[in-house]
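This section describes the prediction task in plain terms. A model, or a person checking by hand, is given the sequence of a single protein chain and must write out its three-dimensional structure as a string of tokens. No templates, partner chains or ligands are provided. The sample shown here is typical of the held-out split.
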Amino acid sequence: MLVLAMTLTAFGVGCSDGSETITESDGTEPVGFNKEVTMPIEAVTTTVISPGAEPRSPLRRTLEPGISQQVTLTTDHHIEQQINQQPQRDISPPSITIPLTARSGADGVELTVGNVTSPDPAMAKALAPADGSRVGIDVSDVGAITALKLSPKPSTSDAARAALEQSFYQAVYQSIAFPAEAVGVGAVWTVRQPVSGSVPLEQVTTCTLTARDGNDLTIELNVVQTPKSTVWHLPNEAGQLEIVDYLMHGTGTIAVDLDLPLPVSGTVEVGGNQTYRDPRSAVTLRQSLRTEVQWGA
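The expected answer:
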């Protein structure tokens, strides 16, 4: 039970969104540390449920090279965990706020990280050297992010790098892809996307275009995540747990300017409860999770 508890505590930061994080307790330097690391993002499938009202037109970002945007990304990941009848523990990582300058180019969008802050003093100190780090994103013609490239400053610690990686992964998997067909106000479409990781997930986001003023869009989101497997493969080959139940659901509203590379404002929150069981020891793990991704000025 002790080994299981330690493993789950170390991995709790990454379990809800499928991305695997590296903690200081690993004692090893992550692959590509202080070098550009490219992380492919699973492809999306969009399906129009209702095309909306006339007039209708395709939703496409018109990103001329050199377009610049300043926006702030804030992510908050809350985890409470209970093993058997032990007291419930809060193992949440600190929230972080990342000022970003985005510039469009011929090969995608490059983000420059500003002065990252956190309410946790230790995390804030660890993140200070990350100022000036670069993040590249490849975007398809319908706005789907297809790759995430991280280039941390050489002085960025592995703890800070893991926190940034986690935040960008959360933001990427709550981003919006547009349908290929022309749509109008009131249009509804789904975005289906696998989320790879120790618990492979199928994420379906239902998008509703609630308002449009030229290239300014307001889109409501409804997110549902379901596991594609009946087991959770623990990191570092530490075994596997049976998934007893898994319910993750969220909602949000995002404002998009088709002339800019990133959302202008908005918040998406996904949360739920999960229960796992170790078949060898009958140990049961319960987790309550909530992830919030917020864009703003």
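For orientation: The chain has one domain: 2-296.
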